[in-house]
Amino acid sequence: MKYVKISLKAFLKLIVFTILLVGITKCLLDIFHIYNFTIWTGIKEKSLYWVSWVDYVGAILFIFLFVFVALTEEYLFRVIIYHKVSEIISLKNKVLHAIIAVLLTNILFAIGHWPSHGYKLLPYLYLTLWGIYFSYLYLRTKNIYTACVMHFILNAGIIVTWPLKNLSLILNAGEIFYIIVSIFLIEAYKIFKYFNRNNKTLNKLSERNIETGENQTFYEINKNEFWKRMF
């Protein structure tokens, strides 16, 4: 496909990612002794207890299902549809172009999930905002798996553990916490990456400054290059 790299390396990376995410989730469930949870099927809730190997396998497969859903939806909306919409839009301003492409993509993302939320306005806006957040993760990190992990974490909220079954405010606060922490880590990494290359960048720019005869100060050079690299 045009927007998805199909190769043995990409396939192996996908397999490793899936195994790691399922494995880590299983380990966390064991660490916190979560051996019974409720599966939301859209029609009814089914209690699942990890007391037999059948339930155990069922739980692992259910976790795998959420990983698969996150992968397919992120590749579909954040990669294929986003880049297709970007091709259709014709704008010279790159920032505005990206913003409109992200908005249109996630309007479609929310519409795709809307029927399961009873066609209500608030869930639609909620889904659109989450889609924008996933787009931010993909575009900022240039890695679709970052968005997949956070998508999986959000979807995993459908697995409602018994101690938190009626504490929706805590779950919402947890989602906000995920967003804040992930954005902080990404931006902190971007800044660290920039300043780690700072000396080399300043040397190159100062040489160019001498060659062109410009009178920019080191502060101006540093500032201009900072925003160029960051965005």
Word description of this protein:
Keywords: Hydrolase, Membrane, Protease, Transmembrane, Transmembrane helix. This protein has 231 residues and is mostly helical. It has one domain. 74% of the residues lie in helices and 5% in strands. It has eight helices and three strands, in the order αββααααβααα. It is globular.
Map the helices and strands.
Blueprint: H1 8-31, E1 36-40, E2 45-49, H2 53-88, H3 94-113, H4 121-141, H5 144-155, E3 160-161, H6 168-196, H7 198-212, H8 218-230
Helix pairs in contact: 1-2, 2-3, 2-5, 3-4, 4-5, 7-8
In short:
This protein is mainly alpha-helical. It contains eight helices and three strands, in the order αββααααβααα.
Provide the helix percentage. over 70%
User: Looking at the structure, what is the overall shape?
Assistant: globular
Domain count, please report it: 1
Low-confidence stretches: 39-47, 160-171
Taken in chain order, the helices and strands follow as HEEHHHHEHHH
Number of helices: 8
Helix/strand structural class: mainly alpha
Question: What characterizes the major β-sheet?
Answer: 3 strands, antiparallel
Please count the beta strands (DSSP E, at least 2 residues each).
3
Per DSSP, what share of the residues sits in E-state strands of 2 or more residues?
A: 5-15%
In angstroms, what separates the terminal alpha carbons? 28 Å
The value of Rg in angstroms is 22 Å
For the largest sheet, list the strands in their spatial order: 2-1-3
Mean pLDDT: 75
